Automatic annotation (TrEMBL):
<dbReference type="Pfam" id="PF13410">
    <property type="entry name" value="GST_C_2"/>
</dbReference>
<dbReference type="InterPro" id="IPR010987">
    <property type="entry name" value="Glutathione-S-Trfase_C-like"/>
</dbReference>
<dbReference type="Pfam" id="PF13409">
    <property type="entry name" value="GST_N_2"/>
</dbReference>
<protein>
    <submittedName>
        <fullName>Glutathione S-transferase family protein</fullName>
    </submittedName>
</protein>
<dbReference type="InterPro" id="IPR040079">
    <property type="entry name" value="Glutathione_S-Trfase"/>
</dbReference>
<dbReference type="InterPro" id="IPR036282">
    <property type="entry name" value="Glutathione-S-Trfase_C_sf"/>
</dbReference>
<dbReference type="InterPro" id="IPR034345">
    <property type="entry name" value="Gtt2-like_N"/>
</dbReference>
<feature type="domain" description="GST N-terminal">
    <location>
        <begin position="1"/>
        <end position="82"/>
    </location>
</feature>
<feature type="domain" description="GST C-terminal">
    <location>
        <begin position="87"/>
        <end position="206"/>
    </location>
</feature>
<dbReference type="InterPro" id="IPR036249">
    <property type="entry name" value="Thioredoxin-like_sf"/>
</dbReference>
<dbReference type="InterPro" id="IPR004045">
    <property type="entry name" value="Glutathione_S-Trfase_N"/>
</dbReference>
């Protein structure tokens, strides 16, 4: 299999971190240079018409896109360690946590960065700085929600590490790098403590 990724992009990082946590080997990584518009090349668009990374090219030639779908496929191939839930009940609550982080925290960060950071102007035209600034504020609202959740349990979805922690980690690291967002500096002590614990995991460097 081949995994198409891009340096610094948070969604490919979610997949590579998931792979690292699973201990999966043998998947070739193919780098796509977003700044050079390689994701819009004829060859890559033939694999993913939406011109987005990550994309997982299977051994039979099919191409699986969308981060969560790729992780679901890999979880099926490599069920241990379990990162998406054991049984329908746990799976549902882990998916709820993961979706909330993805749709509110992660998306707010992405919108803020894409519309305010000059380095991403090549990917987002036109940029709307006012929209980006408002998304930055909304992101902080959801970060405060997550801080409250982490006051009640050690991981995003409860008592153990799951795919929801991967999504949250990659979102926050994207914000740390391009928004200079540090939860502890904004009164979110539980979120900062969680972030610092996640940074110690070997997969966090992927």
């Amino acid at each position: 299999m081949k995994l198409y990724v891009s340096t610094f992009a948070p969604n490919p990082r979610r997949v590579t971190m998931f792979i690292a946590e699973k201990g999966i080997v043998g998947i070739e990584q193919v780098m796509i240079d977003l700044a050079a518009n390689e994701h819009k090349s004829e060859a890559f668009v033939a694999k993913n018409p939406l011109a987005r990374v990550p994309a997982l090219e299977l051994d039979d030639g099919r191409v699986l896109c969308e981060t969560r779908a790729i992780c679901t496929y890999l979880e099926g191939l490599h069920p241990e360690p379990n990162l998406m839930g054991d049984g329908f009940d746990e799976r549902a609550f882990i998916e709820m946590a993961d979706r909330r982080v993805e749709m509110h925290l992660f998306l707010g960060i992405a919108n803020s960065v894409r519309h305010t950071h000059p380095g991403l102007a090549v990917l987002e035209q036109p940029q709307f700085p006012d929209f980006g600034a408002s998304q930055g504020e909304k992101m902080r609202e959801h970060a405060r929600w997550l801080d409250g959740e982490l006051a009640k349990h050690p991981f995003v979805a409860g008592e153990r590490f799951t795919v929801a922690d991967i999504t949250a980690w990659c979102a926050l690291e994207f914000a740390r790098g391009l928004m200079k967002f540090k939860p502890g500096m904004e009164g979110m002590a539980h979120l900062q403590a969680w972030r610092d614990r996640m940074a110690e995991r070997p997969s966090a460097g992927r």
